[in-house]
Amino acid sequence: MGHSAAVWDFRAATEITKDQNGIGQVVLRTPQGASARVSLLGAQITSWRNEQGEELLFTSSKTISKALKATRGGIPICFPQFGNCGSLELHGFARNRMWAVDENPPPLPANDSNGKSFVDLLLKSSEEDMKCWPHSFEFRLRVSVTTDGDLSLISRIRNINGKPFSFSFAYHTYLLVSDISEIRIEGLETLDYLDNLFQKERITEQGDAITFESEVDRVYLSSPNVIAVLDHERKQTYVIKKEGLPDVAVWNPWEKKSKSMVDFGDEEYKQMLCVDAAVIEKPVNLKPGEEWTGRLQLSVVPSSFCSYC
Fold it and tell me: Where are the membrane-spanning stretches (predicted)?
């Protein structure tokens, strides 16, 4: 390569294009060949590829690609709720709104921009949203791809209301895996979880790792800030690092549920696993003028180098 990373123009590595539905998307690239795509609809990450161009996020082949709805896969942003309660739509409205590129974002620490290809996106409360969730907010999201190919998301949500509000949140991350029955998650053992298949019953994890042989829909509570998802067949590990996100939702629909989902292939559960860094059990409370930050960094390492292995 003729240029070192030090002189790489990372803004020039950010391209704004349109997807097949004419919706704006931002493409981030590194000089080594890693990339990510971010839709302006929902600020949803729709693709993350390593330096060899291999896709790392799952997207269903059956996803219903129609305007103004999140697609089934990638990383949708769940705000101001995760799950389904009250009058708000499932997983909140942020994932189904058009976001803007934020041309003048407040500065982040220097190490959050050095050596990265990144974009800043902005969502503000609309009159429509205020009818179902009457709170004024500014939601800023920085998406970046590092020179190592890591994918980083930094969410900052500010209360610009005259009154406090609370919310739950998740980066609803669909990982692409080789075979779900060969996957194990390390870092959640011994934790309590809420089991959504049993009326949110609180259960203590007994296994030395989480493995999969049937439908799983759980929220692990007060989790460590580093989780590893080991893919035995590919001999690679997803390393999930997070800050400000105490909970981890783990989901795989398995065979029966897959067949009931119109936007999901009958056999696709074998190639996907959702591991979501989240705030679910104890919602964030923001007073007027306060700001919350939630960070997620995803990386992929050969399993032989994984400290968990």
Answer: none
